[in-house]
């Protein structure tokens, strides 16, 4: 059997295209803009949140291509496959074309088409009623992306205080908190990683090359091209791991043990940056006392990585410091101990002394824009509902799951309506059963989306947004080596005149809710131009070029840059008094993950290089590149189960939730105590025909999660599955199949 299953061959081809891009072509686009009558419009991509600058190419009045903008530092003139495929989202067949009001039972996906006036009058009447009876705090807003700005602003001007983005506690929240607790600052996006100058790069999970954050992948390709040393710890031989000098197939959930053992070697052998620790470190002695107990021999038993390998890789890291970077990761909500895992990563970096140093974390700058004068928000006596009593003491943004909990329990006060912008909460939040139960408790659900997503299927009102190539949004002001501002502007009109931009929706909503002063400008360009011109920059230049990049400034201590740490001690906190005071471990202590129940293995997930989460499976271009997902199963495990390559299986988790059928991909490149699946497939909304029931949903299987006690972030890799061979499993019950509890049939898997 081919040890490299189809999916991997495809991943490798794609990554080869990307890794080779720097040397070969100026863009990944299949179609370069032709000379002649083409018109190009500079804007920035929102197929994901890297926000690369691109050029929309219009030919004969139609959107012809979307290619990289060479002036833009987030793309360097090249887009990833998803950005290049953005025109597919413009022509996506099942886009919502008009506002919709629900006619059938909730979740039945039955709507009638209405005018904007009707839809917004209905929304305003329902929200005003809730405000009158319970207060505006009982209306919550969920958001993802820059387009949310004016809708959120309208709602906040009217009294909304609960506003949360799942991209915090379901993504990079615990990482940023881990860094705040250590260095006094989070890393944000794009992260200030100087991969361009790194000599040794350590990836813990972070699967660059499948995770397509554009310039990071470009710098990674350059790093590999010049022979940089790569160390990858991942239970799976990811695309990145296939390029590594050392692949450490760490047992899932044991990263803290591995990182602590690395630190043990570096501390006990005196390999760390002693000058940096002396000048900038706080509590190093207490930390060192603890870390001396975390020996490689101890960690070997936990992680499955031989002690000699742990020692060798630790020494390799120290050999090139400070140009050694332990990648902090991005999606860090894995096991429910993730802010501590992030602390461990932050501390290992601190031992390299790489803060503000070439090849480590560069010092960032930004281009300042002028604020546009807008009236302040009303004060709320009730406060927010997502984190009552500061239960999660280090959460520094709102918790989406906290709002869901308040909706379910009515505590600290009832939440009666959700307004949801560009986040598919049924997919995004852990345990979709809880999300649906919370929706059941709502008086009113408004969803602003481009397509008929799952969450839209449950809405009382759906408002159709224009996609990013069809609209203005606020200016993107970015921290980076020099910093820059980028403009989003329409390349083509939306296919339907009823598909409106977020700012317009926000303005109408403000009018209908009786707070018209919240958005005083009649056209968003008034607002955009004012912010740019008042900052002394040229709006005409921004419109023409798409970006204005700031001046060169020092990025490193060597260039005269200053480093300071906004922690209580003013230093890098190896030992954290504030964590201790809050009742948690002041040093990152490893806790062994729960073992798999009999007959089950752990489910771990990641990204497809050609899709973004669950939002692009209905994009015809990207759908063509990858219509469905597959489940990776290690060959020894498959042999034990009698599962053949390509055979359809279902996954049933510890809570009896069964997936849709999905093809098995047998591989040598995965530990046999877990299976791997790309997240974002297995859609259940009939309103999007291309993605409906294609593949299996990792979201639905994520029913058992742990909550990080420091930040409230929720885990994704804490579920176990049995592998059921088709057709032995009960016949599919279409849309509901993924939420159906286990029937009588017994899992056919034995534990690996
Ligand atoms: N193409 C594409 N690119 C994207 C996105 C996308 O949807 N599509 N999304 C973007 C976003 S929002 C994010 S947050 C990032 C996410 O991308 P990353 O932050 O890079 O990755 P994760 O999804 O957290 O991690 C996935 C990897 O971790 C490994 N892994 C699983 N469990 C463990 C473990 O216990 N230990 C270790 N060491 N490794 C483990 C998996 O095998 C997999 O290779 O990607 C961004 N880039
Ligand atoms: N099980 C599991 N859960 C996860 C993750 C995981 O890997 N596994 N990843 C986590 C991470 S890292 C992140 S960042 C979050 C991401 O979570 P979300 O941001 O919620 O991502 P999606 O599920 O793709 O939902 C995006 C929704 O926005 C809609 N949309 C797309 N473009 C537009 C637009 O221009 N305007 C409007 N109004 N709507 C639009 C899409 O149709 C879709 O309904 O999910 C988190 N949740
Ligand atoms: S990384 Fe790709 S999808 Fe994300 S913004 Fe850039 S081009 Fe668009
Ligand atoms: Mo994310």
Outline the fold blueprint.
Blueprint lengths: L5 H16 L17 E6 L8 E7 L2 E7 L12 H4 L1 H5 L9 E3 L8 E3 L2 H19 L4 E5 L5 H10 L3 E3 L1 H18 L16 E5 L9 H12 L3 E5 L12 E3 L6 H14 L5 H7 E2 L1 H8 L4 H8 L3 H13 L4 E3 L11 H15 L47 H10 L7 E5 L3 H4 L3 H10 L2 E6 L4 H4 L3 E4 L11 E3 L5 E3 L15 H11 L11 H10 L5 H7 L1 E3 L22 E2 L3 H5 L19 E6 L13 H6 L4 E5 H7 L6 E6 L8 E6 L6 E5 L41 E6 L27
Helix pairs in contact: 1-7, 5-18, 6-13, 8-11, 8-12, 8-13, 11-12, 14-16
The protein binds ligand MGD (2 copies), iron/sulfur cluster and molybdenum atom.
Molybdenum atom (MO) binds next to α6.
Describe what this molecule looks like in 3D:
The protein contains 23 helices and 25 strands. Helix content is 30%, strand content 15%. The chain is globular, with a radius of gyration of 25 Å. The strands form six sheets. A seven-stranded mixed β-sheet has the order 5-4-15-14-13-6-7, covered by helices on one side. It has 752 residues and is an alpha/beta fold. Helix 7 (214-225) links the parallel strand 8 and strand 9. Helix 8 packs antiparallel against helix 11. Residues 48, 82, 171, 204-207, 211-213, 233-236, 238, 250, 252-253, 255, 329-331, 334, 604, 606-609, 611-613, 676, 717 line the site of one ligand MGD.
């Amino acid at each position: 059997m081919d040890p490299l299953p189809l999916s991997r061959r495809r991943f490798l081809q794609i990554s080869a295209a990307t890794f080779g891009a720097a040397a070969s072509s100026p863009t990944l686009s299949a179609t370069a803009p032709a000379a002649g009558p083409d018109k190009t419009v500079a804007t920035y991509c929102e197929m994901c949140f890297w926000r690369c600058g691109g050029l929309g190419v219009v030919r004969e009045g139609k959107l012809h291509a979307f290619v990289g903008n060479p002036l833009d530092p987030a793309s360097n003139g090249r887009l990833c496959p998803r950005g290049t495929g953005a025109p597919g989202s413009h022509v996506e067949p099942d886009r919502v074309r008009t506002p919709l009001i629900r006619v059938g039972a909730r979740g039945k996906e039955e709507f009638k088409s209405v005018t904007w006036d009707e839809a917004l009058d209905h929304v305003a009447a329902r929200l005003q009623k809730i405000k009158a009876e319970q207060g505006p705090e009982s209306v919550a807003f969920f958001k993802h992306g820059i387009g949310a700005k004016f809708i959120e602003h309208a709602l906040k001007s009217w009294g909304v205080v609960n506003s949360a983005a799942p991209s915090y506690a379901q993504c990079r929240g615990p990482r940023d908190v881990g860094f705040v607790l250590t260095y006094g600052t989070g890393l944000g996006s794009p992260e200030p990683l100087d991969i361009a100058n790194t000599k040794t790069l350590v990836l813990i999970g972070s699967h660059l090359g499948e995770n397509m954050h554009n310039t990071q992948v470009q710098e990674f390709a350059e790093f590999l091209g010049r022979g940089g040393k790569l160390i990858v710890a991942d239970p799976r031989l990811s695309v990145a791991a296939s390029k590594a000098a050392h692949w450490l197939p760490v047992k899932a959930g044991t990263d803290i043990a591995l990182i602590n053992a690395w630190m043990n070697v570096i501390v006990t052998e005196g390999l760390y940056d002693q000058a940096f620790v002396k000048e900038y470190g706080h509590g190093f002695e207490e930390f060192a006392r603890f870390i001396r107990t975390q020996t490689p021999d101890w960690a070997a038993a936990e992680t499955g990585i031989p002690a000699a390998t742990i020692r060798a890789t630790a020494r390799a890291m120290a050999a090139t410091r400070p140009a050694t970077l332990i990648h902090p990761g991005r999606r860090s909500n894995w096991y429910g101990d993730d802010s501590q895992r992030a602390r461990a990563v932050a501390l290992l970096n601190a031992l390299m002394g790489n803060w503000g140093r070439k090849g480590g974390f560069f010092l960032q700058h930004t281009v300042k824009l002028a604020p546009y004068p807008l009236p302040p928000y009303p004060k709320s006596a009730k406060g927010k509902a997502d984190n009552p009593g500061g239960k999660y003491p280090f959460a520094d943004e709102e918790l989406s799951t906290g709002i869901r909990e308040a909706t379910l329990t009515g505590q600290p006060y009832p939440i009666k309506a959700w307004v949801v912008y560009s986040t598919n909460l049924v997919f995004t939040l852990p345990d979709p059963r809880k999300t649906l139960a919370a929706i059941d408790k709502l008086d009113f659900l408004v969803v602003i989306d481009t397509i008929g997503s799952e969450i839209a299927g449950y809405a009382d009102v759906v408002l159709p947004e224009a996609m990013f190539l069809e609209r203005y949004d606020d200016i993107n002001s970015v921290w980076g080596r020099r910093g820059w501002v980028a403009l989003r502007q329409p390349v083509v009109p939306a296919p339907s005149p009823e598909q409106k931009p977020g700012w317009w929706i926000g303005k109408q909503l403000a009018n209908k809710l009786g707070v018209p002063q919240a958005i005083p400008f009649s056209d968003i360009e008034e607002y955009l131009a004012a912010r740019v011109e008042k900052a002394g920059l040229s709006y005409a230049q921004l419109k023409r070029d798409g970006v204005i990049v700031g001046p060169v400034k020092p990025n490193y201590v060597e260039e005269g840059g200053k480093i300071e740490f906004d922690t209580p001690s003013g230093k890098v906190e190896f030992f954290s008094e504030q964590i201790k005071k809050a009742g948690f471990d002041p040093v990152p202590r490893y806790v062994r993950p729960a073992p798999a129940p009999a007959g089950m293995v752990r489910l771990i997930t990641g990204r497809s290089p050609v899709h973004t989460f669950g939002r692009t499976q209905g994009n015809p271009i990207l759908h063509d590149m990858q219509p469905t997902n597959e489940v990776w199963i290690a060959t020894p495990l498959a042999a034990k189960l009698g599962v053949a390559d390509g055979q359809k299986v279902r996954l049933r988790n510890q809570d009896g939730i069964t997936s849709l059928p999905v093809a098995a991909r047998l591989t040598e490149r995965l530990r046999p105590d877990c299976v791997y699946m790309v997240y974002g497939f297995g859609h259940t909304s009939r309103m999007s025909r291309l993605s409906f029931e294609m593949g299996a949903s990792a979201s639905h299987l994520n029913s058992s999660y742990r909550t990080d006690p420091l930040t409230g972030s929720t885990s994704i890799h804490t579920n176990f599955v049995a592998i059921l061979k088709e057709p032995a499993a009960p016949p599919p019950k279409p849309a509901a199949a993924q939420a159906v509890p286990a029937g009588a049939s017994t899992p056919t898997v034995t534990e690996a």
